[in-house]
Design brief:
alpha/beta, Aspartate Aminotransferase, domain 1, Aspartate Aminotransferase, domain 2, seven-stranded mixed β-sheet, 15 strands, about 40% helix, globular, binds pyridoxal-5'-phosphate
C-alpha cells in the first residue's frame, strides 16, 4: 500500500484522538526519518523527546535483539535481570536509591501521586493528601495525572476529577507559599515546562521550592518525563539547578524509543511502596529494561551531555540571529536541546511549511515553535534546519 492508502485505512479504523499530519513514517536512522513514499525528513521532534539518541540507536537495537532471543516477559512476581541493572544505573547517577518501573510518563506520575499520599498515611498523617501543581503544567492523561495537569482544556468533559489538587502560577514561589495548608502532601513541578511552552523558571525558583517543602515537611516531586535524560545538557534537569527532589518521574527517552516509565526516590520515601500497594504488569519487563540499560549508558556519557550543550548553544545562537533579522520572531528560549521560538504569527502554518520542505518541528502554544532534535544532532543539520526555517519566515506574504 502507498502512503495515501494507509492514511485512508487509518481514517476508518484508528481512533481519532490525535490531529495527525498526513504522513506515515516507515524507517528512521539518527536524525532522519523516511516516509512510506520514500521522502526523507530531518527530525527535530524526536517523538516528543523520546528519541534523544536518534532513531534506532545501534546499541539499543542490539540490546533489544539479544534480549528478544532470551526472554520477553516474566512477571514481577519474580526478579528480572535487566530491570535490576537499570535500577542500579539510575541509583548510581541520580539522588535516588530505588526505582519503581512502569510503562509511560502518566503512569510514573500516578505512582508519584499514590506514593506521596501513602508516605503520609504511613506517618499517621492521612489528612496530608493534597497536591500543589502549576498552571500550564503537563503531567499526562490518566485521571490523577490529568488532574495534576494545570490546563483546563485537558480537563474538559472528564470530570469529576481527582479531589485534592490546587493550581498556582509557575515560577511564583510566593503563590506556592500561600497555597500550602496542613493538608498539603506534595508540590509537583516540571523543572522546565515542556508542553506548556518551554517555560524556564528564574534561577532560584526550584531551590526556593525545595526550601519551602523542607520547612513545611512536604514532598517535592519533579516530573522530568520530558526534560530528564540529557535533554537540557545535564543528565537530569535538576542537576543544572543544584537542587534535589524527593521523587522524580521519568519516561520518554529512558529506553531509547521503547515504552517505559520510572519513579525514582530515596529509600525513606519509596519504602512506603510495600508489597501489595502498587504494581504494573509490564513495568520493568525484560525487553524494555534491556533497551533502557543500553539507552541509559549512552545518555549518561559526559560526551553525550557535552555535545547536547554545545549543539544547544549553537542552535540558540543561530535562532537568535533569525530573531535579529526577522520581525516575526519575538524571542528564543531554551536549555540544552529543548528550545522554543516565539513568533508574532500562528505557528501551525510554519510547522506545515517546514514539513513540506523536509523538516519536522512542532508547536506548543499558538505562536510558539518547539525544537527537540535528537541529542546526537550535528551542526550541519542545525544549519539546514535554520536555513529552511529562515527561508520560510523570511518569505511570508
Ligand atoms: C509526555 C509527558 C508526560 C506524559 O507521558 P506519557 O508517556 O504520554 O504518559 C508527563 N509529563 C511530562 C512533563 C511530559 O512531557
Amino acid at each position: 500500500m502507498n502512503q495515501h492508502e494507509w492514511i485512508h485505512l487509518a481514517d476508518r479504523v484508528v481512533a481519532k484522538n490525535y490531529g495527525r499530519f498526513p504522513v506515515v513514517f516507515t524507517k528512521g536512522k539518527g536524525t532522519k526519518l523516511c516516509d512510506a513514499d520514500g521522502k526523507e525528513y530531518l527530525d527535530f521532534v524526536s517523538g516528543l523527546a523520546v528519541n534523544n539518541l536518534g532513531h534506532c540507536p545501534p546499541s539499543v537495537v542490539k540490546a533489544i535483539r539479544d534480549q528478544a532471543e532470551k526472554l520477553l516477559h516474566v512477571s514481577n512476581l519474580y526478579h528480572v535481570e535487566p530491570q535490576i541493572e537499570l535500577a542500579e544505573l539510575l541509583a548510581k547517577h541520580s539522588f535516588a536509591d530505588r526505582t519503581f518501573f512502569c510503562n509511560s510518563g502518566t503512569e510514573a506520575n500516578e505512582a508519584a501521586i499514590k506514593l506521596a499520599r501513602r508516605y503520609f498515611h504511613d506517618q499517621g498523617k492521612p489528612e496530608k493528601n493534597e497536591f500543589i501543581t502549576m498552571r500550564n503544567s503537563f503531567h499526562g492523561r490518566t485521571l490523577a495525572s490529568l488532574t495534576a495537569t494545570g490546563q483546563e482544556k485537558f480537563h474538559e468533559g472528564f470530570g469529576p476529577l481527582v479531589p485534592g489538587f490546587h493550581y498556582v502560577p509557575f515560577n511564583d514561589i510566593k503563590a506556592v507559599e500561600k497555597a500550602v495548608t496542613p493538608r498539603t502532601c506534595a508540590v509537583m513541578v516540571e523543572p522546565i515546562q515542556g508542553e506548556g511552552g518551554v517555560n524556564i523558571p528564574d534561577p532560584g525558583y526550584l531551590k526556593g521550592l525545595r526550601k519551602l517543602c523542607d520547612d513545611e515537611g512536604i514532598l517535592l516531586i519533579f516530573d522530568e518525563v520530558q526534560v530528564g535524560l540529557g535533554r537540557t545538557g545535564t543528565l537530569f534537569a535538576y542537576q543544572g539547578e543544584d537542587v534535589e527532589p524527593d521523587i522524580m518521574t521519568l519516561a520518554k527517552s529512558l529506553a531509547g524509543g521503547v515504552a517505559i516509565g520510572a519513579l525514582v526516590a530515596k529509600d525513606e520515601v519509596i519504602s512506603s511502596f510495600v508489597p501489595g500497594t502498587h504494581a504494573a504488569t509490564f513495568g520493568g519487563n525484560p525487553l524494555a529494561s534491556a533497551a533502557g540499560v543500553a539507552a541509559f549508558k549512552e545518555l549518561a556519557k559526559e560526551e553525550t551531555l557535552a555535545h547536547c550543550r554545545e549543539m544547544g548553544n549553537y542552535f540558540t545562537e543561530r535562532l537568535s540571529t533569525l530573531k535579529e533579522e526577522l520581525d516575526v520572531v519575538q524571542g528564543v528560549r531554551g536549555r540544552g536541546l529543548i528550545i522554543a521560538l516565539e513568533l508574532s504569527i500562528p505557528a501551525k502554518g510554519i510547522v506545515l511549511k517546514c514539513m513540506e520542505q523536509g523538516l519536522l518541528i512542532n508547536n506548543v502554544k499558538e505562536k510558539t515553535l518547539r525544537f527537540l532534535p535528537p541529542l546526537v544532532v550535528e551542526k550541519e543539520e542545525i544549519d539546514k534546519a535554520c536555513d529552511i526555517l529562515g527561508g520560510i519566515l523570511g518569505n511570508l506574504k
